[in-house]
Amino acid sequence: MTFEYRLNVLEASGNGGYADKSRKKNVAPIPLRVTNNSSDPVTLHRDLLDVTSDGARPYLVPPQKAADDLGQAYGWHVLWGLLNVYYTSSSGKTTYIPVGPVISVFNIIRGATANAKLESDFEEESLYGVTVPSGATVSGLVFVADGEGQPLEFIYRGSDATARAR
What we know:
Layout: E1 2-5, H1 9-12, H2 16-25, E2 27-35, E3 42-43, E4 49-52, E5 59-60, H3 63-70, E6 85-88, E7 94-97, H4 99-125, E8 131-132, E9 137-145, E10 153-156, E11 161-163
Antiparallel strand pairs: 1-2, 2-9, 3-8, 4-10, 5-9, 6-7, 10-11
């Protein structure tokens, strides 16, 4: 088996917010292309894929954990509820307009929806559990903690597959 991957893909694709959070939380999605050079199909399991990085041992995390770590913290949007507008007419009558709660609810729904989509996308693109037929190449994501930015080496136990950064 051979592996090809890219590092720092969040920054390269212009996702600065997610790239900052990835560095802060120390979890990164790594695009990985796997080619099965063996005569048998191979199913990729997270437990059988080892990662090393210059002697360190970064570890693979499930897509749900990566999505939780990289998702938006939308609970803080409740503070928008404190924003209110008062309109005073020429007759002196004051009208209260509750714009804050509307903004708050909208932002919370938007953040929760974005997080659900992120988790769904990570699950869909994950290589964990994918079967690679003999001679075929598949692409997807693996999620690495404590290893972003350093050259990585992937070793799939049970085969002679290794790869370094390109």
